Structures are given as C-alpha cells and as structure tokens.
C-alpha cells in the first residue's frame, strides 16, 4: 500500500512541481520586465546622466519669456527664474549656478534649430543630438548671482519640419520637457511647460511654485462715487494738422550664424584637450602682431562624451568678417602652419592639418600673425570686449565630431 502511495505521488508530483517552477519563472520575468520599464521611465531624460532630477530640489526654472517672428525664423526665448527650493537637498545651496540646459526634442527636428542666443548674443555652445533626442545649450557659466534673468533664445527655421515649439518638443502642442544642470552636473531638475501658452511680458510677476495662494482680502465697502468731471475748456485756436507718425521700424535682422555652425560636442568638460585662459599678443616682424593661444591637456573629462582623447585636427578662432585680408600667416610651436580665413557659413580663422594625437602633458602654441586694423583681440573678436571664442576640432568624419569651445581673453 505504501509503495502505491509513493508511486502515485511520484507520478502526480512531477507535473505539479513543473507548474510551480513555471509560475515562479513567469513572476520573476514579470518583475524584471516591470523594473526595466520603471528604470527607463525614470531615467529616460536627460539621457546618460547620473543626477538628481527632482524639480523641488533645485531653485531654477525656465519661463517662456518671448515668442516672435523675424524673416525666416520663429524665435522662442526662455528666462531662468529662481523660485526657491527644498533646503534639505544638496541641490539647494546658495552658490549653485547653471552650466547648461537640455531640452527633450523630436529627433526629426534637427534641421529646424539654426541658431541659439544667450542674453541676446549669438551663442556657439549648443548641440542637437538626434540619436538621444536632446538639444543641449552648454557653457552657460552662470553663477547663483547671474543665473536669474539669463535668457536663452532658440531660432527655428520656417523652411524646416518643426516651425514651432510644440513640434520641436513633442511633435504636437503637448508640454515641453527640459532639465537645468549645475556646474557639477549632479543636479538636473526636470520640469515641463505648456507650449501653447502665450508668453508673459517682461514685467510679468513669476509666482513661485509650491507657495499657497494668498487668502482673499476681507470685503470692503464700495468706494464713493467719483466727483463730477470739470467743465469742458473752451475750444483751442485752430492749428495746422499734426504730422503723420513715423513709419514703424523694420524688424531687426537675424543674428549671424552661431560659431561653429555645425553639430559637434562643444562642452569643454567633454575632452582632455584644453586651452589656457588667456590670449597673448606680441609684436612680430614686418609690423605684424602675433596673437597666440596655448593648447594644453587636463586629467579629467566626461567619459560618456566620446571626445576625451581625440586627434587634434584644427584650431578655430571666431572673428569679425571685416578682418578678412588681415591674416598673414600662422605658426604652431614656431613652425609655419596651414591657415585660412573663412567668411561663410560663419566667419572664422582656421589653423588646420595639425594631426596631433592626444598625449598627456602635450603643449602647443598656436599663433596667427595679423596686420592692422585687426591686430588686437578687441578688434579681431566678434563677441565684443577683449575675448575670442576658440574651438579645438577633431578630424573630419570622426565619430563623434568633437569641438570643445573656450572663450579666451587677454
């Protein structure tokens, strides 16, 4: 009898155990799948970033400050506002600045974004990464004091796919998602704003988030009726008719193309190649002036950028187009080098064909020999003041294309 019971358990137990095992595997797979979906949802934007995305932990937001049209473009401007934050967060500190802003965009809109300005000045440090669906505006370099009120404007071409903000952000009129990064890039609060809301005027008060509305004021008695108007004055003596008002001023021309007018990785922290912070100027033979920058290296970079140790192909200077014809020669470490003065699609001086693989402690002095009137940094630079944006470029066809941009002065 015992043998029969054992035999029956053996026969029935195998299918039961198999069924239980199948259920356990299915539940585990479901949990793993749910976990992957949750992970993708919470870390999808901004991509490839290990940072605090909680909006309540950071003081900064973007406010849509202006929408306008100029010939060929729709222009959308955003101002950084400080609304306060959760004081217990590491991202809510007195000295927190703003390094970059990323927008979650439609990859098909890459050809639509043509220019970016920062505080109404052309800004070259931006990148449209179609693979990640991200528009990055970098190298803002704003401190806690200068960040509030900073204005970023996007110029969308009227001849491309995405001619308005709704199409750029989500392909329709849904909300637009963005992230604001601090200098350490460990804080990236993610927030949204509606793309179909008209922008406020410049003096419109921004109501801080997370603040309860003020209680209604108590009822007051109605004001007394206004006094009767004074009697009408006697009609004035006839005068000649007033001249017609002047014609309205034409809209301002669009800003010049951004430097450099290409899609590349522009952030200085993306590469171990670097530039000294100053430009030197020295008299040279023949009444020329040697304007020099020092290319150096550093120890750290963003390992996710793909630009840590690229082969240096060229150095570009953003310059005034009116300086064409004043470039006489270029040298690298005292030896003559290939150079060109480009006016289109953006004005720049290029020192090319460097072919320098990255080496630790590498040092290059790149000089351009200029004649008057463009033989000073102030006269040569197009950004105003005694500064010139300078870019370090990887070889053509490299993946990714690297072009860390520095703004140098003397």
From TrEMBL:
| InterPro entries on file | Pherophorin
Region spans: Disordered: 192-262
Q: Which residues form the signal peptide?
A: 1-29
Q: Does the keyword ATP-binding apply?
A: no
Q: Which UniProt keywords apply?
A: Signal
Q: Indicate yes or no for the key word Signal.
A: yes
Task: List, for all copies, the residue spans of the domain called Pherophorin.
Answer: 45-189, 259-404
Compositional bias per record (Pro residues), positions renumbered to this chain: 213-259
The organism's place on the tree of life at top rank: Eukaryota
> What is the name of this protein?
Pherophorin domain-containing protein
Lineage here is: Eukaryota, Viridiplantae, Chlorophyta, core chlorophytes, Chlorophyceae
